[in-house]
Specification:
368 residues, mainly alpha, globular
């Protein structure tokens, strides 16, 4: 495969970075807003000769941008080897995401997503083009999750919107409904019971049984936040039935063996049924692969919270002590929500065994 020629937008970004200019500094040299310049660089705005001349002058491109705008679009060479390569790379990125900070994973995810976007738009084989769009959607959806783990819900929502757009171009309507599952997750971590249930119900209208199952799980968690135990149990039962009937989805977690059981434990804890939640998580945690560090940390911390709330605070402190290094490594904003809750619980109960772990938790929560 020949080296991939840059698009107009990619060349604008390269030249701007080469000149040491921020978007704000470039904005002051041209008549375009920073937002419009960002759309140009991301390929959302197609170049015209006037735009090219302005940017050519501002970036001292010696006619390069004008030439690119005047040239007819050329197909970017694509083949199935390219598709397989980027599919394999996605699995590599996801494996990194299981163990590393989102800040390490996101730059490469975003770059490969932009390349796939370019390849898909230029593919001369419609079938290959659709496959490239669908793979770009998987990159964007996972980038959205990493943005949420970084604590940037706005960027997470924007990435999810891009994933929906890419998936639609690839002929897959499932992700549009899945975006509502993600919206329910945003609300869940904000502690917004009504918002969680509302978004989950929107997702439940999907034709995909797998999306309906995921939606029912989020719905159950929303009801648990609101203290609606019977509705929570009904949603969990519905999720179990749907998961048994559904085929696998290409979106969402790959780390949990039994998502319904883990969600049941999560919900029981929020409903005040702490001992039951702890017992379920004691059984489920060993089933999560050691390589899935992010999931083991998230649900391991929820397990410790359940044990502490059930009265076994010393054991909970031991569990959290074993998790501290992993919490530092994965740097998860969603994990920090439960870590804060555990810190508040220790502050209230003041167990003698918790003094040292409380200090370490404080260091983690207030690190830059």
């Amino acid at each position: 495969m020949k080296p991939l020629s840059p698009t107009f937008g990619q060349e604008v970004r390269r030249l701007r970075n080469e000149r040491g200019l921020s978007l704000t500094q470039l904005e002051s040299r041209v008549q375009y807003s920073k937002g419009h310049l960002s759309k140009i660089e991301n390929g959302k705005v197609q170049p015209n000769p006037g735009m090219a001349r302005v940017l050519d002058d501002a970036l001292q491109a010696a006619g390069r941008l004008t030439e690119m705008a005047d040239a007819p679009p050329r197909p970017v060479p694509t083949d199935h080897t390219t598709l397989r390569t980027y599919d394999s790379m996605f699995e590599h990125h996801r494996a990194l995401g299981h163990r590393q900070s989102p800040d390490i994973v996101l730059p490469s995810l975003r770059h490969e997503m932009d390349v796939l976007n370019t390849l898909a738009r230029s593919a001369d084989d419609p079938g290959l083009g659709r496959a490239l769009w669908l793979l770009a959607a998987r990159y964007a959806e996972y980038a959205g999750w990493m943005e949420q783990e970084r604590g940037d819900d706005a960027s997470a929502a924007e990435m999810t919107k891009r994933a929906v757009l890419f998936a639609a171009k690839g002929g897959d309507p499932e992700l549009e409904a899945w975006a509502w599952v993600r919206s329910a997750e945003f609300a869940l971590y904000r502690g917004d019971a009504r918002g969680t249930v509302h978004s989950a119900l929107r997702a439940s209208k999907s034709r995909s049984l797998a999306v309906q199952a995921a939606a029912a799980l989020r719905e159950a968690q929303g009801y648990a936040l609101a203290g609606a135990g019977e509705r929570c149990e009904d949603a969990l039962e519905r999720a179990e039935e749907l998961r048994q009937a559904a085929s696998e989805t290409r979106y969402g977690t790959t780390s949990l063996i039994d998502q319904v059981a883990v969600t049941r434990a999560w919900s029981f804890h929020d409903l005040g049924r702490h001992a039951e939640a702890a017992a379920i998580l004691d059984a489920q945690l060993p089933l999560i692969a050691p390589s899935a560090l992010r999931a083991r940390t998230r649900f391991g911390l929820r397990r410790a919270l359940a044990h502490a709330a059930a009265g076994d605070v010393d054991y909970a402190c031991d569990l959290v002590t074993d998790l501290l290094d992993d919490i530092r490594q994965v740097q998860s904003a969603t994990v920090h929500i439960d870590l804060t809750a555990f810190s508040k619980l220790l502050s209230r109960l003041r167990p003698a065994s918790g003094r040292e772990v409380a200090g370490e938790i404080s260091d983690i929560l207030f690190e830059d």
